[in-house]
Design brief:
Order of helices and strands: HHHHHHHEEHHHHHHHEEHHHHHHHH
Bound molecules: heme C
Low-confidence stretches: 1-34, 245-252
Structural class: mainly alpha
Distance between the termini: 64 Å
Shape: globular
Radius of gyration: 28 Å
Largest sheet: 2 strands, antiparallel
Length: 496
C-alpha cells in the first residue's frame, strides 16, 4: 500500500499541531478531565440553538435527500416497466443502467421469475390510457409523408420543452450530463417504459412515487404529448446496440447474457399461485423492502407516510417542485444550485418573481435553472416566503446609498472596477468582459444593495467556494463600487 502524499502531510500537520499545543500548555494542566454535561441541556440546546445568521423558519422543511426508501414503490411497477426489462434489471442493475444505485442481489433466474410473478400479482390499478392520434403509435417507416410531418411537429415541440426543462441537469444520457447527481440515466429508457406511463409520470410524478426527488413541472397537455413523443422517438433514448442490430451485421456483445423472462412467458406463469408465493418469500429474504415500498410486504418496514394533504404556498411548492433537490435551505437539501438560506437578503424580489416564472441566463458558464412554468401566484408565494423568512438574522449593513447614486460615486466606482480588473471575470452588459462570473449588466435589478456590499467585502463569506478574490477594498472603494453596480439596471442598459 502506498500512502498518498496529501494524507501524509495531513498526518504530520496534526502531529505538529498536537505537539505544539501540549508544548504551550502551562504546567499542571491535565487533559483527561471530562466535563459532565446535563443530557437535558444538550436536548434543549439542540432544539433551540440556531446557527449564526439563520432565522427560525415558520415551516418544517422536508429534505428530499432523507427519504425513507431510496427506491421507487414496486406495487405498480408492472404498469411502468416491461417484463424483459425488470428481469434484466434484477439480474444485474448496472448492466442495464450505468448509474444504477441498486445492488446486484445475486438472484438466479428461477428466483427472478418468481419475484416478477409476485410483482405482477400486487398491481393495484390500471394505467390510465391516453388517447393518442393513431399515427403517433406507428413506427417511423410506416408513416405516410403527411403523417410524418405531423409527428415531426409534435416531436420538435417536445424537443423545445425538453431543452427548457433542462431534464439533463438531473438525468445523464449514456453517461453524459446529470450534474445534480440524482436521476437515472435515460440512455435506454425506451426499452423500459411505455408512452402512457411516461405521460402519466410527467403529469403527476407524486401519484406514482410520493417521495420522488424529481421536479413536478407545470406542463400542459400539449407540452406533455411533445416531451413523450421526443423521448419515445429520439435515438439518444435507444441503446446503441439496438441501433446497430438493425444493420444486421452488428457484433454481438462479448459476455453472454443470462436468461431473460419474456412478456410471453410471463403471461403463462403470472397466475401460478405457488410461484407467486415463492416470489414473496424471495423478496422477504432478499430484503427488497428495505429500499422499496411493496404491497404485501409493507408491514416488515412501513413507509412513514408524511401528511402532505394540507400543504399550501411555499411549502407546497417545495414539495411538488422539489426545489431542495438542487438548492439548500439551512441544513437541508442539495448543493448543486445557489444556497437559498439567505436569499431574501440577497435578491430583489420584484426581479425574483419574474425569474421564477421564466428563468433567465445569469451564469453563462455554470448551471441554469429549469423552466418549471410556475404560475404568477406560485412565484408570489415563493418570493413572499423568501422575503419574510429566508433572511439573515440581523439586516446586512447598507452602503449608505439611497435612491439613485450620485454621478460622482458612479464614476469613482467605474474607475475602481477597471483598475481592480473586475472585468477580467465579469462582462458589463453589452460592453463585454470575462465570463468566469455572472454578467453584471443588470445586477442592480437583481441584487439588493447591502448584499452587494456584503459580497464585495469578502466574497468567501457569502460563498465559501467563491473564486472571486478578496480585494481588501477600502470603505471608499466599496461605496463607490456599490454605487456603480446598483446603477446597472435594465432601464439604463436598454438606453445605452
Ligand atoms: C439497497 C437498496 C435496494 C434493494 C435492497 C433493492 N433495491 Fe430495487 N432499486 C433500488 C433503487 C435505488 C432503485 C432505483 C433505480 C436505481 O438504482 O437508481 C431500484 C429500482 C428497482 C426496480 C425498478 C423500479 C422502477 O420503478 O423503475 C425494480 C423492479 C427493483 N428495484 C426491484 C427490486 C427487487 C425485486 C429487490 C429485491 C430482490 C430490490 N429491488 C432490492 C434499491 C434497492
Ligand atoms: C430535479 C431533478 C430532475 C429533473 C429536472 C428531471 N428529473 Fe426525471 N427523475 C429524477 C429522479 C430523481 C428520478 C427517479 C425517481 C426518484 O428517485 O425520485 C426521475 C425519473 C424519471 C423517469 C423514470 C425513469 C426510470 O427509469 O424510472 C423519467 C422517464 C424521467 N425522470 C424523465 C424526465 C424528463 C422528461 C424530465 C424533463 C422534463 C425530467 N425527468 C426532469 C429527477 C429529475
Ligand atoms: C433542477 C435543479 C433546480 C431546481 C429543482 C430548482 N432550482 Fe432554482 N436554481 C437552479 C440553478 C442551477 C440556479 C442558478 C441559475 C443561474 O444562476 O443562472 C437557480 C437559481 C435560483 C434562484 C436565484 C438564486 C441566486 O442566489 O441567484 C432562486 C431564488 C431559485 N433558484 C429558487 C428556486 C425555487 C423556489 C425552486 C422550487 C420552486 C427552485 N429554485 C428549483 C436550479 C434549480
Ligand atoms: C477571478 C474572477 C473574478 C474576479 C476578478 C471578480 N469576480 Fe465577481 N464573481 C466571480 C464569480 C465566479 C462570481 C459568481 C459567484 C457565484 O456563482 O455565486 C462573482 C460574483 C460577483 C457578484 C455577485 C453577482 C451575482 O449576480 O450573484 C458581484 C456583484 C461581483 N462578483 C462583483 C465583482 C467586482 C466588483 C469585482 C472587482 C472588484 C469582481 N467581482 C471581481 C468572479 C470574479
Amino acid at each position: 500500500m502506498r500512502l498518498r502524499p496529501g494524507i501524509l502531510l495531513y498526518a504530520i500537520s496534526i502531529v505538529t499541531m498536537v505537539t505544539c499545543l501540549s508544548w504551550k500548555l502551562p504546567a499542571g494542566v491535565v487533559f483527561a478531565q471530562e466535563r459532565k454535561i446535563d443530557a437535558l441541556f444538550l436536548e434543549l440546546d439542540k432544539k433551540y440553538r440556531l446557527p449564526e445568521q439563520w432565522s427560525q423558519l415558520p415551516i418544517d422543511i422536508e429534505d428530499p435527500y432523507k427519504r425513507i426508501k431510496n427506491g421507487p414503490p414496486l406495487t405498480n411497477v408492472i404498469n411502468k416497466a416491461k417484463v424483459e426489462w425488470i428481469s434484466r434489471w434484477i439480474a444485474d442493475p448496472k448492466r442495464v443502467v450505468p448509474n444504477a444505485k441498486m445492488p446486484n442481489l445475486g438472484l438466479d433466474f428461477e428466483e427472478i421469475k418468481a419475484v416478477i410473478a409476485y410483482l405482477g400479482s400486487i398491481k393495484e390499478n390500471e394505467l390510465p390510457q391516453v388517447a393518442w392520434d393513431a399515427y403517433l403509435l406507428k413506427k417511423e417507416d410506416a408513416l405516410s409523408e403527411d403523417e410524418y410531418n405531423k409527428m415531426d411537429k409534435v416531436f420538435n415541440g417536445g424537443k423545445g420543452v425538453w431543452g427548457r426543462a433542462r431534464c439533463t441537469i438531473c438525468h445523464p444520457i449514456k453517461g453524459l450530463g446529470g450534474n445534480v447527481g440524482v436521476g437515472p440515466d435515460l440512455g435506454a429508457i425506451t426499452t423500459k417504459i411505455n408512452r402512457d406511463w411516461l405521460y402519466e409520470w410527467l403529469r403527476d410524478t407524486k401519484g406514482h412515487f410520493p417521495d420522488t426527488m424529481m421536479a413536478q413541472f407545470r406542463f400542459n397537455d400539449s407540452d406533455l404529448r411533445g416531451v413523450v413523443e421526443f423521448v419515445m422517438r429520439d435515438t439518444q433514448f435507444i441503446p446503441e446496440e439496438a441501433d446497430e442490430e438493425e444493420g444486421d451485421n452488428g457484433a454481438k456483445s462479448a459476455a453472454p447474457e443470462a436468461s431473460v423472462l419474456t412478456a410471453k412467458e410471463f403471461e403463462t406463469i403470472r397466475k401460478e399461485a405457488a410461484l407467486i408465493e415463492k416470489g414473496k418469500d424471495v423478496i422477504e429474504r432478499a430484503r427488497c423492502f428495505v429500499c422499496h415500498d411493496i404491497k404485501g410486504i409493507q408491514e416488515l418496514m412501513p413507509v412513514i407516510n408524511r401528511n402532505r394533504q394540507g400543504l399550501a404556498g411555499f411549502d407546497k411548492l417545495l414539495y411538488e417542485v422539489r426545489c431542495l433537490t438542487c438548492h439548500r435551505i439551512q441544513d437541508k437539501g442539495g448543493s448543486y444550485a445557489p444556497n437559498l438560506t439567505m436569499v431574501g437578503s440577497k435578491i430583489r424580489m420584484d426581479w425574483e418573481r419574474d425569474f421564477l416564472q421564466a428563468p433567465d441566463i445569469i451564469r453563462p458558464l455554470s448551471q441554469q435553472m429549469p423552466k418549471f412554468n410556475l404560475t404568477a401566484d406560485e412565484a408570489k408565494s415563493a418570493t413572499d416566503f423568501m422575503e419574510k423568512s429566508l433572511i439573515t438574522k440581523e439586516p446586512l449593513p447598507s452602503a449608505g446609498i439611497t435612491g439613485e447614486p450620485a454621478p460622482e460615486v458612479v464614476a469613482a466606482g467605474e474607475k475602481v472596477f477597471y483598475e481592480k480588473g473586475c472585468n477580467t471575470c465579469h462582462a458589463e452588459g453589452m460592453k463585454g468582459g470575462g465570463v468566469v462570473g455572472p454578467n453584471l449588466g443588470t445586477v442592480g435589478d437583481r441584487l439588493q444593495q447591502p448584499y452587494i456590499l456584503y459580497h464585495l467585502k469578502n466574497p468567501q463569506q457569502a460563498n465559501p467556494q467563491a473564486v472571486e478574490p478578496n480585494f481588501g477594498l477600502s470603505d471608499d472603494e466599496l461605496k463607490a463600487l456599490v454605487g456603480f453596480l446598483v446603477d446597472h439596471v435594465q432601464k439604463k442598459a436598454s438606453k445605452k
